[in-house]
Amino acid sequence: MIKTLEKNIQNEKLIFTNQKAVFWESRKIMIISDLHVGKSAHFRKSGIAVTSQILLDDLEVLENLISFFGAESLLIVGDLFHAGHNSDLEIFCDWRNRFPDLKITLIKGNHDRIPKKFYEDYCIGIVEDTLEIGPFTFVHEPQHMENRFTVSGHIHPGVVFQGKARQAVKLPCFAVSENQLILPAFSKFTGLDTKTLNQNFKKIAFTKGIIFDY
Description:
Blueprint: E1 4-9, E2 12-17, E3 22-24, E4 29-32, H1 39-45, H2 53-69, E5 73-76, H3 87-97, E6 103-107, H4 116-121, E7 124-127, E8 131-133, E9 136-138, E10 149-152, E11 158-162, E12 168-176, E13 180-182, E14 202-206, E15 211-213
Parallel strand pairs: 4-5, 5-6, 6-7, 9-10, 10-13
Antiparallel strand pairs: 1-2, 2-3, 3-4, 8-9, 11-12, 12-13, 12-14, 14-15
């Protein structure tokens, strides 16, 4: 079930979800990061049994989000893909073909190494470095820019909740500071970085049933 938390950032209404995505309401843009299409197939090539159901589940979540919000554009701030051409890519292509009217733009990340022609064939716009839309600068790796508010991904932010008897639970989160928003990895087949971010960042954590400030 999709749960939401609205925030006013840079005088724009952003809707944070417990599905690892942000919806920019006035622009009808769904914003995600680090989908890592092809990661499961990459592991299988190395002899590690990882099912493609992981990707199918991720794409189903994305489809539900697009439908729920009526998104007209999908903006991916890096690492749409994980490796070169493999069998998981065909699953993504089939999914893409079902949304011919959806505009997709990718700010290339360090894993996005698919040949340029593929993006052209599947109507995916490519940005090599940064993309500025309104008050936001979209870039893959988190960075501070003077007089700009950046939206990025890359580090897969997470938080740790300590319980009694040395119990601990890790959750993915959004991280927000005065001039940055860092998105969680959209793919569930990723780890969590719970140590990189400093105290200047506030966290928006979530589970399958709730989203909350931390």
